[in-house]
Amino acid sequence: MKIPMRVDYGVRALVELAQHYDEHSVQTADIASSQGIPEAYLDQLMSTLHKYGFVVSRRGPQGGHRLAMDPKDINLHMVMSTLDGNLSPIDCLITPTDCVFSDSCAQQEVWKSVEEAVEEVLRNIKISDLVQRNRDLALQSV
After folding, report:
1. Which domain covers residue 93, as residue numbers?
2. What pTM was computed for the model?
């Protein structure tokens, strides 16, 4: 399974905002700089994250972005579903009627199990978990 860059960047942006949760808004340029995300691309992502209720944004010199919900309430499944929309490892799980072997395919059962396992893992990992893991890794490197 390949994670799209859009999802990777979106998760990194949300983790950055979560690190400042309850503190202050963070400007796009600051997120882009600290996370190595092209600013123009991040602007598009932040707009999408705002549209779907993950982020509250305010324009202007004192503007920036904040999480719209507690980082404990945002799981990776939510983010991936929003930014990619397709968690399926194979197209026939999305539209089984497109495959002539769909009714008699043993592989389809395997890929369905993989899809369910990935979804379970993503549902159990919260943005707050990633913030804590970043803190733990930072302490280990000191």
Report:
1. 5-140
2. 0.87
